[in-house]
């Protein structure tokens, strides 16, 4: 299995106009996570970012008017044209992989059982990468990193450079954040 090269920092965009804050991509891979909106707005944002050289992952669970079933994901792949999806749902991950999209499985680190269940889901769905939330639990994130053969991204609640450094030291390969001040690092 080839490990996906994950950028250290991944802007997480919630508003259509935020795409303008991201510069043209150069050199290392540049990813952006699109977190919701209408299907039309997500398609527009995806196209604009891709024209600037960004690889775009859309959190399909947060797109209004879209179902994560087989037909919904097929429609999404053809209409939106993103490079991949993010989802908490194993079936959406499986459907995305069937239509040739990259897939990031999002798991929540709420308690020991949710960590165990999340790792089991990841091992059965074989996503391209995993995003763990909240992103400020270095010891728990390390357990996930050690338990799965996929790159791990930490997301949620990360507001400062020091918090990014702690999570990267814990073994995650990338940080996703909607904190705009971190996007230029």
Strand-helix topology:
Elements: E1 9-13, E2 31-34, E3 37-38, H1 39-51, E4 55-59, E5 63-64, H2 70-80, E6 84-87, H3 90-98, E7 102-108, H4 112-125, E8 129-133, H5 138-147, E9 152-155, H6 161-169, E10 174-177
Parallel strand pairs: 1-2, 1-10, 2-4, 3-5, 4-6, 6-7, 7-8, 8-9, 9-10
Average pLDDT: 94
Question: In which order are the strands of the major sheet placed?
Answer: 1-2-4-6-7-8-9-10
What about the largest sheet? 8 strands, parallel, barrel
- Mass-distribution shape: globular
Number of strands: 10
Q: In which range does the helix fraction lie? A: 25-40%
How much β-strand is present in the residues?
A: 15-25%
Structural class: alpha/beta
User: What is the succession of H and E elements?
Assistant: EEEHEEHEHEHEHEHE
How is the CATH topology named?
TIM Barrel
Q: How big is the Rg?
A: 15 Å
Total number of domains: 1
Keywords:
single chain; 185 residues; alpha/beta; TIM Barrel; two-stranded parallel sheet; 6 helices; 23% strand
């Amino acid at each position: 299995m080839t490990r996906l090269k994950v950028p250290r920092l991944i802007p997480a965009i919630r508003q259509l106009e935020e795409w303008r804050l991201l510069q043209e991509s150069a050199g290392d891979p540049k990813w952006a996570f699109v977190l919701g909106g209408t299907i039309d707005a997500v398609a527009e944002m995806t196209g604009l970012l891709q024209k600037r050289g960004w690889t775009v992952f859309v959190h399909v669970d947060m797109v209004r008017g879209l179902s994560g079933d087989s037909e919904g994901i097929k429609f999404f792949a053809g209409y939106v044209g993103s490079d991949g999806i993010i989802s908490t749902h194993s079936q959406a991950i499986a459907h995305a992989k069937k239509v040739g999209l990259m897939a990031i499985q999002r798991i929540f680190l709420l308690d020991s059982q949710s960590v165990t269940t999340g790792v089991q889901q990841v091992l059965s769905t074989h996503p391209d990468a995993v995003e763990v939330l909240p992103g400020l639990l270095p010891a728990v994130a390390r357990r996930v990193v050690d338990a799965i053969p996929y790159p791990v991204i930490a997301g949620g609640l990360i507001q400062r450079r020091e918090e990014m450094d702690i999570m990267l030291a814990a073994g995650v390969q990338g940080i996703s954040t909607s904190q705009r001040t971190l996007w230029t690092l």
